[in-house]
Write a structure and sequence with these properties.
The protein has two helices and three strands. It is α+β, with helices and mostly antiparallel strands. The chain has a three-stranded mixed β-sheet with strand order 1-2-3, with helices on one face. The longest helix is centred in the middle third of the chain and has 17 residues, at 37-53. The radius of gyration is 14 Å and the shape is flat. The protein starts with 8 loop residues before the first strand and ends with a helix.
Length: 76
């Protein structure tokens, strides 16, 4: 059985709880092959909304299929 799934975009939140101080948060928004300009804008807007909800202290990363950052790939 072959299952085919196309994912246009995804949001990923990584939170590290430190012994002292506020949590360290990274927000990655990932764009797949099928993502267009509207999808890219939506992912960016949702990442900003998530960051605002968390107190505007997260680092945001834009990830593109095949060009992902090492930090993003290290999560998997």
């Amino acid at each position: 059985m072959v299952v085919f799934c196309v994912i246009k975009l995804a949001l990923y939140l990584q939170t590290v709880l430190l012994k002292s101080g506020p949590p360290q948060r990274d927000i990655h928004y990932w764009l797949g092959n099928e993502a267009n300009k509207v999808d890219s804008a939506l992912a960016s807007d949702k990442a900003l909304e998530l960051d605002a909800a968390l107190g505007s202290c997260a680092v945001q990363y834009r990830e593109v299929l095949g060009q992902e950052t090492e930090i993003f790939l290290s999560y998997f």
